[in-house]
Amino acid sequence: MRLTDKVIRTLIVLSMLTIAISVSACMDKDTGQENNQENVEVTAESISNVTWEWTGTIEADAKTPLVVPDPKRYTIKFMEDGTYYIVADCNTGSGTYVLDNNRITLNPGPMTLMACGEDSIDNKYLAYLGNVDSVVLEGEQLKLYLKGSDDRMLFSLQY
């Protein structure tokens, strides 16, 4: 193997580690906090009309959090009228949602069904969204909790 190949591979590995460390540092700090112990009511107005980028998911039974490699490819935008729009890698879609205090139900609507490639995590993203039942907003971080667990998807505002 040539020296330049080794250098390039080393730089790629270091870049991925830097991204993983950066994202995990920005992730949820309240591990051990039970689902929805937040007392702040989430309203449609407080989460609407901005685009949220999926940065990762914390699962109780996973050894490490899932870090989304390119959050701009996995977004959700809630509208005040009860609709939402998503980007799931190479696919787009929409649906409706019902928000009652911190409880949220996402009802899927039309969605493109392109194959995004073997490195895509679009199916995982969509599966998580289909299992969401509550929401917490902490500053510029949106947390969507999954049914029956303390597992949560983490989103940051898109700028």
TrEMBL record:
It comes from the Archaea. The keyword Repressor does not apply. The keyword Disulfide bond does not apply. It holds the Pfam family META. Residues 68-155 form the DUF306 domain. Keywords: Stress response. This is Heat shock protein HslJ. It comes from Methanolobus vulcani.
